[in-house]
Amino acid sequence: MLSIRLQQRQALNNLHFLLQKHYMNVILMVAAVTANIAGLKPERRSPGSCQRGAMDTVSGLDPGLTMEPEDKSLDPRETSHRRFGSVMHTEEEKEAPSITEFNSSTHVLPVGQTARYTCHTGGTPEPTVEWLHNGRPLERNGTDDQSEAWVERGFLFVRGGRYGVNTVCCMASNSAGTANHTAELLVFDACELTLDPNTAHRELSLSEDNRKVTRVGEDQSYPDHPERFHSLPQVLGREALTGRCYWEVERKGSVGIGVTYRGITRRGWGDSGLGLNNKSWTLACDDHGYTAGYTGRETAIPLRPAGSTRVGVYLDRPAGTLSFYRVSPGGAGSSDTLTHIHTFGSFFTQEDLLPGFGFWGDEGDSVSFCRSYKK
């Protein structure tokens, strides 16, 4: 009888144990389903996260396992900064500086006038801008007495107080790098250049106080003169070019713009042609392009006129260079823009150098002096 009661008690204990185990499994299953429905997941703490023993208290929260909604649209770096309700931003992306607006073309400035330069930049963090004039940094809102250049309200001002070539540079820098653009400013005093009627071929007509020459169909009644061109329709300037000179010409049609020694022959074809010998240099211009010529060798220039009919010529006799520029008019009262076309290098002798023009196109083609400067 006793053994039967013991067996019954043992069976009841086993049943109670099974019911307890089953009940716990049901509770765990319900908890798991609830968590899935709510879209919650337990946060996994990294070894380096703030923790105190096995539990954590942050910003007054109760210790325990922190749960947060799973949002796959958030950047992991940003999500980690948003835990526990804290507001933090991601590390700022860096971008190297760039100069978005700066006229790096060459400009001409008469003595006594002032040029203004603007420099707009981009980049992250916002770049700081530094101005340099002839290689020397300029302080903000300060004046460089030696070069007569200063920075005011972010602009660089250069006063044409000394002759020659000035260089200006805009330098932008931030923690991601630097960028810079450079421009040249030619400063000269005004001078007068005119054409010499005694050198003009008879197919050329001079006008506007001998500052303009036009190719015509009828021979002009010029008197005989030993300096007159006989074979080619060309004409030379009256005033000799010394030191450093800059002048601009306005053309119509096909013309040659050049510089020659006074001793160039006036008869024959090759010997008297501008750019066809070792006594002269020329830039042939028309509406389609430019060609540089010296000693009969021609160099095609990839630059196109782009609607411009004006050419700038810069002779630096001490340096032995002769440069040509395409001149584009500036807008809203700004100075004209000079784009480099070609530069000849030569050792100039003491013989007089003169400006000269030649024609190979149609009647009515013309060229005239616009303005000229001299050091």
UniProtKB/TrEMBL annotation:
Organism of origin is Gadus morhua
**Bias (Basic and acidic residues):** 69-81
Q: Which GO terms describe its cellular component?
A: cytoplasm
Q: Which residues cross the membrane?
A: none
The record places domain Ig-like at 97-186
Q: Where is this region: Disordered?
A: 43-81
InterPro entries xrefs: B30.2/SPRY, B30.2/SPRY_sf, Butyrophylin_SPRY, ConA-like_dom_sf, E3_ubiq-ligase_TRIM/RNF, Ig-like_dom, Ig-like_dom_sf, Ig-like_fold
- Residue ranges of the B30.2/SPRY domain? 173-375
Q: What is this protein called?
A: B30.2/SPRY domain-containing protein
* Any one GO molecular-function label of the UniProt entry: zinc ion binding
Keywords, ordered alphabetically: Metal-binding, Zinc, Zinc-finger
